[in-house]
Specification:
The complex is a heterodimer.
Chain A: E1 5-14, E2 16-26, E3 31-35, H1 42-50, E4 57-62, E5 65-66, E6 77-80, H2 92-98, H3 107-120, H4 136-149, E7 154-158, H5 166-183, E8 187-191, H6 194-200, E9 203-207, E10 212-219, H7 226-248
Parallel strand pairs in A: 2-10, 3-8, 3-9, 6-7, 7-8
Antiparallel strand pairs in A: 1-2, 1-4, 4-5, 9-10
Chain B: H1 3-9, H2 12-32, H3 40-53, H4 55-87, H5 89-103, H6 107-118, H7 123-146, H8 150-158, H9 163-197, H10 206-215, H11 219-248
Helix pairs in contact in B: 3-11, 4-5, 4-7, 4-9, 5-7, 6-7, 7-9, 9-11, 10-11
The chains are: A alpha/beta, B mainly alpha.
């Protein structure tokens, strides 16, 4: 059952306008990267889509159902934060089992699913480890496995590789692309790293400086050569970074 | 293990210092007489006496019984206060203020009030222990409640965990280390305070017998019972609180 995400005229004010107006559609199976300078409102946008915060204007619907902070909708949304937000007193397996509980899944099935997704994310053999005993990269993989375990209609990722070193970051970029291909999930991935976005996304949405608007929407299907695309977006993002610095002064 | 490590493990340096201290004690006791400073030999003899007569168990049990009731009650009420502080914003402020007042009230106030209210009975030390340990355990617990990682709770919300699931999976494990720390400090306090309160009006327990020994000029028994108290505290730490703390910290 293909579930589409529709963002229509979403805006957010918090003392100052953070998001002006953003509209786009994410089709089932897309891997959309939302790009923008730091502080432009990308994380806020993601939180609104996740239902963690209400928009000041506009609406978000997922599979036709409105997403709001208060009313629960029937679609499943998984979120991977910048910090892993794993429960340190539980093993990786227990962490991934925990989020399946609200779905009414039995204990045996929860464990099997947890192990399957931990393995998919390259953590086979580490199920019974505690988060403090594994590396940062492994913790983020576990957080991704946790998000996948609920078999979400939409997977939101907020700069998930931001805290990793450069080497791990490259590895995880390949990994998430592989995971996307193997699971067919719909992914919305927020980042400020152009190369990362171009390497993994099928559609790239570039946001302007705060208050955020869509500056450009590009389909990354290989028609534009990669390095050219990176240069183009890089120039654009630097323009926006400068614009944001100017307004800050 | 190397020789140096073995020595440290058996607390040999401490024992060496203790041996010197006991030697000094012996010399001073000769100088000051058995009323002021009984000799270590007399103290040791006294200890053997109460172990043989079984007195050590009866009085220790009496004291511990009162401590368990007073301290146990304090832990229950502290957990209640912690829950209130967790569930209601306004309750948090009230709990803070109540604890501030209790924390600043001296032991003697409770001892005197307990004699007025409960007469000369076991309820005196129990009440005093309760009132003194409650703010200690509750303060630790409230601090634990306030330090629950909100980002973890937010993660719970995002994954649609129910209130109960969040409480059991996130809140309780966050708070338990604070509770145990509070209980460890509180129990030590309970032991000291309860024994102190036993001077006023009860006829059993370590405090009572210590005071009685003073009255009949058997000073060496005062030292003996002080030693018993120390041993009880060390035993509870080693056998109860340390293992529990270690088990809780397994994942760190």
């Amino acid at each position: 059952m293909a579930v589409t995400l529709e963002v229509t005229g979403v805006g957010k004010d918090f003392l100052i306008p953070i998001i002006d107006s953003v509209s786009f559609t994410v089709e089932a199976g897309d891997f959309v990267c939302v790009l923008g300078p730091n502080g432009c409102g990308k994380t806020t946008l993601l939180r609104i889509i996740a239902g963690m915060e209400p928009p000041s204007r506009g609406a978000v619907t997922l599979g036709g159902e409105p997403v709001s902070g208060t009313r629960r909708h029937t679609k499943k949304v998984g979120v991977v934060f910048q910090e892993d937000r794993l429960l340190p007193w539980m093993t990786l397996r227990e962490n991934v089992e925990l989020v399946q509980q609200p779905l009414g899944i039995g204990a045996a099935a929860r464990r099997a699913t947890a192990d399957r997704y931990l393995s998919l994310c390259g953590l086979a053999g580490f199920e019974r480890y505690h988060p403090t005993r594994v590396s940062g990269g492994m913790r983020q993989r576990a957080a991704i496995a946790r998000a996948l375990a609920i078999e979400p209609d939409l997977l939101l990722m907020d700069e998930p590789f931001g805290a990793l070193d450069a080497q791990n970051r490259r590895i995880m970029q390949t990994e998430i692309r592989r995971i996307w291909r193997e699971t067919g999930r719909t992914i919305l991935f927020v980042t400020h790293a152009i190369e990362e976005a171009v390497a993994i996304g099928t559609t790239l949405i570039m946001l302007s400086a705060r208050p955020a608007r869509i500056r450009e929407l590009v389909r990354n299907d290989g028609r534009v050569e990669r390095t050219k695309l990176v240069d183009h977006l890089d120039t654009m993002i630097m323009e926006e970074v400068e614009r944001q610095q100017d307004t800050a002064r | 293990m190397t020789g140096g490590r073995w020595a440290a493990r058996l607390h040999l340096p401490t024992l060496a210092v203790a041996a010197v201290a006991v030697g000094g004690w012996f010399i001073l006791s000769r100088r000051y007489g058995s009323f002021v400073l009984p000799s270590p030999v007399a103290v040791l003899r006294g200890l053997v006496e109460i172990v043989q007569s079984g007195e050590v168990w009866t009085h220790t049990a009496a004291s511990l019984g009162r401590i368990v009731v007073g301290f146990g009650g304090a832990v229950l009420v502290a957990v209640g206060m912690g829950l209130l502080a967790f569930l209601w914003r306004t309750a948090r402020g009230v709990v803070h203020d109540v604890l501030a007042v209790l924390n600043s009230t001296s032991v003697f106030v409770w001892i005197v009030l307990s004699i007025i209210w409960f007469g000369l009975s076991s309820w005196g030390p129990i009440f005093t222990t309760f009132m003194i340990t409650l703010p200690v355990v509750a303060s630790n617990l409230v601090e634990g409640v306030e330090s629950v990682d909100r980002r973890l709770l937010e993660m719970g919300d995002v994954y649609r965990l129910s209130g109960r699931q969040k409480f059991v999976a996130i809140v309780v494990p966050s708070i338990v280390p604070y509770l145990v720390a509070g209980m460890k400090v509180g129990f030590g306090l309970a032991l000291k305070v309860s024994v102190m309160a036993e001077i006023f009006g009860v006829t059993s327990g370590i405090g009572y017998v210590m005071n009685y020994s003073r009255e009949i000029l058997a000073t060496q028994m005062v030292f003996v019972w002080a030693l018993v108290m120390i041993l009880v505290m060390m035993a509870t730490d080693k056998l109860l609180f340390d293992p529990v703390s270690r088990r809780l910290a397994r994942w760190r």
